[in-house]
Design brief:
There is one protein chain. This protein is of the alpha+beta class and 218 residues long. It has one domain. Helix content is 26%, strand content 24%. It has six helices and ten strands; from the N terminus they run E-H-H-E-H-E-E-H-E-H-E-E-H-E-E-E. A hairpin with a 3-residue loop joins strand 9 and strand 10. The two termini are 15 Å apart. About 9% of the residues have low confidence.
Amino acid sequence: MKITIVLFIICLLCSSCGMMMKSMMGLKNPKVESYETINELIYEVGCSNFPNYTLVGTSDSSIIYNNIFKSSIGSLLFDSLGNRLCRLDKKKCTGVVLSELFKSGTGNDFILCQNDTANLTHVLKELQLVCGSQYEKKHDYYLVFYWSRFLGGERRVKDNLKWIKSISNNSEHDIAVILVNTDLQESWGLKKGDKMKLKIKFIGNKSASVILGEIPYI
């Protein structure tokens, strides 16, 4: 079974405010990872103090195809009650706005999302904890950051994770960072180390067609 999807170019949460196009230029065939391989990278970049999750396992091929591109979400921000926050100024990159918010403490660039009812509880139900501990006390903000090894290249992934760590360490607020890896996982019944082939074709400057190959089931 093969599937073709169209991805629209969006601004990602990253220190350089890079566009989705830059990440997709570094796109590799998705490799089946394990809890051990993704935790190794988390320890390498010094983010082991944050809880690291994967998406809950499934044998549904359509969900698997959708899951591996969830890292293109970049991040989701929630308030202390778990309500999702959205940006007011769409012209600024999310990364810049977050840095300004957590440094200045004004909070003027974010409001409660009007059209998105998903809260932090809903998001956590889709996740499987693989490293660290769940947060028990209430925090000022919850920053959920989606990442994968195959989307954008490992160097960009490491830079983004280090940047997330920097935001948390330098903020005037109490921020609970939640890392979510979206790579193909051995725990989903897939063969560790195998890869899913993909082809990408850019359509103008705003979108790209991606043809995904067979899922490497065991």
